Amino acid sequence: MKTVTATRSESRPAAMRKKSFWTIFKEQKTLYAMSLPFIVVVFIFNYLPVWGWLMAFQNYRPGKGIFEQQWVGLDHFVALFTDEKFYLVLRNTLAMSLMGLVVGFTVPIAFAVLLNELRGSAFRRTVQTVSYLPHFVSWVVVAGIVSKMLSVDGGAVNQLLMALGIIDQPIQFMARGSWFWYIVTGSDLWKEMGWNAIIYLAAIAGIDQEQFDAAKVDGASRLQQIWHITLPSIAPTIAILLIMSIGHLISIGFEKQFLLGNPLVVDYSEVLDLYALNFGLGMGRFSFGTAIGMFNSIVSIILLLAANGLFKKFTKHSMM
User: Fold this and answer.
1) Any residues with CB less than 8 A from the CB of 311 and at least 6 apart, and which?
2) Residue 208 and residue 217: Cα distance in Å, rounded?
């Protein structure tokens, strides 16, 4: 009798979950229908082109069908992993990604929390608006602004440092490779900090205000309220965004590096996407460029799954 009872109790939740899913599906069928066009778009532009990975195993030549190409197996991957340039650009990619993850991920959280603590609503809205406006400025304009401010010919930064007596002559910021990673990280932080803080502000706005009222009655300071109420309440949001950021560690694009870089700092500015563009498509080596993109995608998937598994195990927060 105990065995039968236990079996029924174990099978009941599964049946309830299945019934609950179909009940929700029927109730929200309009929302599911609205999301269908987006699913189709994602499938067409993100998943359907994956068949093009076949080019990485061929010596692809334009003008021939995909199955008429010469098959070369793993030759392009061997060439990739034996190229010293590949490890140089991989170092640059990981360095700028990790710096962006440490700075560009944590600062928006702190900014959102501090912005939420401002008393004046008008001043808070003004600061928030001003902070996220750079997001809508293209990287072409941002690169021009950064280059002009760091210029040795009347640049605002050099002028300020010389006026304060910190330096005697202008510094060539854009010609020092060891500084390039910091320039890219700082530029990206200025451009995206306000925009990235919006989702945290939305999460904070959803916290039950009764928790703060109860904390005030207990004598908790504002710092204690942040530490014990605000941050734990938005922890699931932070975890999900952090998992997604880890999944994009080596997929950082190339716009910032391409626009801010120059021949003097090429050993620090070239990343994987630029490497694929210059030594793949730029030289007509389409299969080699595909191999680079395939490596990039597979590593990103592995990082995403690994981060999701670790967060699910240790924090109970995950994407799936």
Assistant:
1) 239, 242, 243, 317, 318
2) 15
Return d(Cα 21, Cα 2) in angstroms, integer.
Answer: 29
CA distances from 81 to 92, 201, 288 (A): 16, 43, 11
314, 290, 275, 278: which is closest to 92 by C-alpha? 275
Q: Where are the domains positioned within the chain?
A: 1-73, 76-314
10 against 258, higher pLDDT: 258
At the top level of CATH, the class of 76-314 is mainly alpha
- State the distance between the two ends of the chain, measured CA to CA, in whole angstroms: 36
CA 167 – CA 155 distance, rounded (Å): 14
Residue (of 88, 128, 99, 278) closest to 187 by Cα position: 99
Per-residue pLDDT of 168-186, as tens digits, reads 889 999 999 989 999 999 9
For Cα atoms 235, 237, 238, give the angle at the middle one, nearest 5 degrees.
Answer: 60
d(CA 308, CA 87): 27
- Kindly provide the b/e burial profile for residues 185-220, where b requires at least 16 CB atoms within 10 angstroms of the residue's own CB: bebbbebbbbebbebbbebbeeeeeeeeeebeeeeb
Digit-coded pLDDT (tens) for 2-52: 444 444 444 444 444 455 778 888 888 888 889 999 999 999 988 888 888
For residue 90, which of 291, 270, 248, 285 has the smallest C-alpha distance? Answer: 270
How many Å apart are CA 19 and CA 266, to the nearest integer? 58
261/174 Cα distance (integer angstroms) = 8
Instruction: Determine contact, residues 223/110, Cβ cutoff 8 Å.
Output: no
